[in-house]
């Protein structure tokens, strides 16, 4: 038995606030697949982003050569279109999945969680649609 310190007894642990009650479990493996996606997309993003940074900042004169013509020449190649598209989509999905987890952890009301997730999904889709549109419809011949 421990001795009281400053009038407190440490025989039993201090009470902690109860965590948010988890929602009913489903038989879905969505969270497992989301966890696996975060790990795999993170690894692929490391390759894509460091490749992007190496090409943009270190090869053939680095930053000095980046201008409209450089982007036009780069996006004339389907390889670079797919590279940039993969980077855009993976970054959006990876970041959105992480933010979805943060929303689930910190929003107390179901209605707040619903609206934050709705706002997140709409913004992700909007950015992916606009980014994809720009990558594939970029016209280097500005009139």
TrEMBL record:
InterPro entries documented for this protein = SQR/QFR_C/D (IPR034804), SuccDH_FuR_B_TM-su (IPR000701)
Q: Where is this region: Disordered?
A: 1-25
Q: In its keyword annotation, does this UniProt entry include Transmembrane?
A: yes
Transmembrane portions of the chain: 33-55, 114-136
Q: Does the keyword Manganese apply?
A: no
GO terms, molecular function: metal ion binding
Q: Where does the source fall among the domains of life?
A: Bacteria
Query: What are the alphabetically sorted keywords of the record?
Result: Heme, Iron, Membrane, Metal-binding, Transmembrane, Transmembrane helix
Q: Which GO terms of the cellular component aspect does the record hold? A: membrane
Entry-linked Pfam families: Sdh_cyt
> Where is the protein localized?
Membrane
Q: What is this protein called?
A: Succinate dehydrogenase
């Amino acid at each position: 038995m421990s001795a009281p310190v400053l009038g407190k007894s440490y025989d039993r642990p201090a009470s902690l606030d109860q965590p948010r009650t988890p929602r009913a479990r489903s038989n879905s493996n969505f969270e497992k697949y989301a966890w696996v996606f975060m790990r795999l997309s993170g690894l692929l993003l490391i390759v894509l982003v460091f490749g992007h940074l190496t090409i943009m900042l270190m090869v053939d004169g680095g930053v000095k050569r980046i201008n409209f013509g450089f982007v036009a020449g780069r996006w004339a190649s389907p390889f670079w279109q797919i590279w940039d598209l993969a980077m855009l989509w993976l970054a959006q999905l990876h970041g959105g999945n992480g933010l979805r987890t943060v929303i689930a952890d910190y929003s107390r009301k179901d209605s707040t969680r619903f609206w934050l997730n709705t706002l997140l999904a709409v913004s992700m889709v909007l950015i992916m649609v606009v980014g994809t549109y720009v990558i594939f419809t970029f016209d280097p011949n500005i009139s």
